[in-house]
Amino acid sequence: MSSTSKLTSVLDIHGLEIKLPPWSDRPNAVNKVSLNVSSGEILCIVGESGSGKSMLGKALMGLLPKPHVHVSSGQIHFEGQNITDLDENEWRQLRGHRIAMIFQEPMTALSPLMRIGQQIEEVMLVHTNMTANERHARTMQLLNDVHLPDPDRVYASYPHQLSGGQRQRVVIAMALALEPKLIIADEPTTALDVTTQAQILHLIKELQKKHGTAVLFITHDFGVVAEIADRVAVMQGGELVEIGSAQQVLNAPTTAYSRQLIDAVPSLSPRVVQKNANSDSTLLNVTSVSKTYTGQRSWFSRGTKGVMAVNNVSLTLPKQGSLAIVGESGSGKSTLARCIIGLEKNESGAIELENQVINGLTRRALRPIRQKIQMIFQDPFSSLNPRQKVGDIISLGPMIQGVSRDEAWTQARELLRRVGLRAEAADRYPHEFSGGQRQRIGIARALAVKPKLIVADEPVSALDVSVQKQVLELLDELREEMGLSLLFITHDLRVAATVCENILIMSKGQVVEQGTTEDVFARPSHPYTQSLLAAIPGQAWSRSMSMNA
């Protein structure tokens, strides 16, 4: 976009303050923020969790959780109208009609009890006088516009019958139903696979150009910013710390915080294999492992239909080595990890740890094996017992192995220090920590029994980019310090390149490519690997940053 000054301003925010309850960690969620968005423009608001970016988006839709959180001063003007203090009826007329929102998690934005066609048509039913035939025709047009395959099937489907990417396209179709002047997209691609993310970003940009819509895109991913933004606003602690063109903010940020966020974006330069004394010694050997999930019998079906999640997979991991298993949702990577750790039983093939076959063992026989192999889960909050203190959570493993409670607690406090937390954290509960801190607790728990292999299943996918960098650096330090081997499950090729020397690509339960990360990135041989690499957002910007570093 050559200039935003020639365009009509759709949204103008002046000195906006959003008050938080007295018990919060700061007075305002948003503090004296002023910005504008013009028609046909994509403004990306970037910041970490707690920066106030999502609260700002909710204020623009009248969705703040009043009365505890509310606009205390400043004004929001939409198409020249002051919408700061609208009542609920006035907001209802505005939402969906002239301002629409694309939410981060489509399953929470869609009703599980209504078919997709009904949910899209409901927007038109509330705001227009269209006939049933006109609503149906417009809905089918929208499903085609967002490039959904077989629109007739999608129209008659329930949300659970669609994939995550398809559900997000439906939410975009709903947002576009009445061609609003402003669309607020709140982290709409965070939970999506890299190829689906690329499709959604391309779709938003395509539709924005087609309809001349103003888009306020909320994200913490500078790769996404580089892909779609015309201008960028950076928020920290509720305040706007920088705003400018995408080129200026991405390539010459004026604040230390913007530079910190940009520096935290994982590099596309792959990690090089480091030889060590144990490089030729195999720790983990997986041979021809398969796992099928069998469908449930029902009154209406005679047989069961199985899904082969892992199909004849083999891999090796040397001592003190690292291997990234990369693939999209449904590729079988997490199922393979659960088979290796013993949380799932594979029906064929062998899993050997230090030349000992560990699959098919009883729980009693597996107990000494679990001391050698531990798992870090994707969501630390759901994997930590909310009723136990952190010290009890970390010390449980050693105590099962025969360590006394006092000694296990002493070790737990030391581990907390090693993962960057205070020893006093042992006396607190998981809900008292941030997401990044909880993931550090999960790492401490995994290290408590002094394992030889860590299996990390998407351990940083839910974290802010700067926290993600800290956790990855911590894993790197601990690997070096403790001589650990790492099996790292991810769908993010940037993370895979940063963490692991070797990489294995999975698709539909099968291995399609494997080798050193350096070789696979430089010379991908399989079309699926090529598509994953091509879908990484902001590649040209990332390479230019690497060259200038």
What does this structure look like?
- The protein has 22 helices and 20 strands.
- With 549 residues, the chain is of the alpha/beta class.
- It has 2 domains: 9-263, 3-Layer(aba) Sandwich (Rossmann fold), CATH 3.40.50; 282-294 and 304-372 and 451-548, 3-Layer(aba) Sandwich (Rossmann fold), CATH 3.40.50.
- The strands form 4 sheets. A 6-stranded mixed beta sheet has the order 6-7-8-3-9-10, sandwiched between helices. Strands 16-17-18-13-19-20 form a 6-stranded mixed beta sheet, sandwiched between helices.
- Helix 4 (116-127) packs parallel to helix 7 (164-176).
- The protein is globular, with a radius of gyration of 25 Å.
- It starts with 8 loop residues before the first strand and ends with a helix.
- Mean pLDDT is 88; it is low at 1-5.
